[in-house]
């Protein structure tokens, strides 16, 4: 409802009680005259309904009903005054009693709350004490319950863990930053040690050169030969020890991986073949060196002079075999140092590469465990059933033999499978969309077929207007025979107006009925 309607409803409800100003003043005058007649010529000094309770009305000058009213009014005032006094007395008494009773009630409430909290605390402590007693009664509370000597007293001692496994575990568990720092420290130590050795060898070489230059004339050939033999023997021993270490390392490697790594055996065979070739070359060089040392000095024949004087052939003094090796000592020492440096560098590079491969394999394994793509699209070679747990050494060797490429293959296969699955889903959705489009096109064609007769009917109507006129005339003749003559012309006019007023493209044209003619038939003559 609007505000005007609400105001109108309120005015209608208050209409019987609202009077015009003139009518209201007239009613007041009538009532005043009536009251004056009731008071019997005594003017009312004030309204009787507004009597003050402290000033009772005097009834000396009043008579009859007015006097009775004043007496009842005074009695009412007295009763009200007595009631007020008694009410105040009772209110003050109840207020004092309430204050006196409220204080003990508050103290009692506080005591009750404190008692409840102490009871709860006591219950908790009792529960704790009870459970402690129960725990002390159990055998696990005894001090010897977890003593390893008593637990493993009757069991067999565990076998010692291989040193290689312990070192591998410590290397794997060590943080990468600390391990890198240790490697840097070790490299610095190696560099410093190499520099010190180089300086020492340079000093020794200078001392040897000074001694050789100082005592070159005093050293005998036998001493030189003995020194060369000693150097040769030391060099041979060192090369044999290095070859033995390499052979032992290859043999141990072959023994460890002969059942688990076919490619490792081939690699070891190649290394052994290379070592054998080096050893054969060393033997050939050694034989050549010995032959060179054992050779005798050939006499030097001087050419004849121009006067063709026959000079006696003078044989040069045979040089000792040590003279042939003295120019090559420095080169042999440099070659030995280079070989040592190459061996150390090779071992260092192998260690770094193995560590990097191990870290990459661990990272790939961790990602494969956390991945949801690989379990959803497993490789065809993997088995679904979990195999039995292998031995610790076998698992360690298997983890070492697997390279990064074998760990990356499941990721590649899973990515390809996910791509193919996504393409299949997209193709299915496209087919569904095409089917929906075909269904909508079929529906549109059906709607078009429903509307096509109307369109063809309009075309025929425009082309064959004469035939339509003849049909209408025949229909009008039959209608004229069936109804009075006075209404025929009006019906034809109404039908013509209806056909002209209807739009050409309206859907209701398909009905093709003469509703106007039927309406004319229903009209009374």
UniProtKB/TrEMBL annotation:
Residues 459-471 have a biased composition (Gly residues). Residues 244-269, 454-507 are annotated as: Disordered. Residues 257-269 have a biased composition (Basic and acidic residues). This is Uncharacterized protein. It comes from Lasiosphaeris hirsuta.
